[in-house]
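User: Please fill in residues for this 163-position structure.
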């Protein structure tokens, strides 16, 4: 049973593009369906968190807007933080889904019980995935992942152990 859904941001929750304004500000594009996926997970009692290697004000804002309680921005080494969150919640790796797309996510994908990669993820990440979303990062991949996690949990409650 998945109880915590943690995701990378750039390339997963976004297309991976960063728009700089030349004055130190930046903007990011977020898919509204991805946001609904995170809301649906929360309504089902599944914890959500953002774990980004890059510090970004738009990421903080999106976490606040969606009610995502844990948002680590600028995490150079992601796995220790992911493990700490799991420990704080009393969870095993099998109860944690992690979604990432690139090299900084490989350790977290390997550690989690349900590694998820968007369809446009790097080959190294795709090889570790238990589920590859039909849509690319920033274009509904998080919604695809959320739907799959909800389905997997429903099946497990029914005694069916296939994701």
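Assistant: Residues filled in for all 163 positions:
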């Amino acid at each position: 049973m998945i109880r915590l859904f943690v995701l990378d941001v750039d390339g997963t929750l976004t297309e991976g593009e960063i728009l700089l304004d030349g004055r130190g500000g930046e903007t990011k594009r977020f898919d509204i369906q991805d946001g609904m996926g995170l809301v649906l997970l929360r309504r089902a009692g599944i914890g959500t968190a953002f774990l980004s290697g890059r510090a970004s004000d738009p990421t903080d804002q999106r976490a606040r807007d969606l009610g995502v309680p844990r948002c680590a921005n600028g995490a150079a080494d992601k796995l220790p933080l992911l493990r700490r969150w799991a420990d704080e919640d009393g969870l095993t790796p099998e109860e944690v889904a992690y979604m990432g797309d690139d090299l900084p996510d490989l350790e977290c994908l390997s550690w989690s019980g349900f590694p998820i990669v968007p369809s446009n993820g790097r080959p190294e990440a795709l090889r570790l995935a238990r589920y590859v979303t039909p849509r690319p990062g920033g274009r509904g991949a998080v919604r695809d992942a959320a739907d799959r996690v909800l389905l997997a949990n429903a099946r497990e409650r029914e005694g069916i152990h296939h994701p």
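For context: Helices lie at 32-43, 57-66, 78-88, 106-111, 123-126, 141-157.
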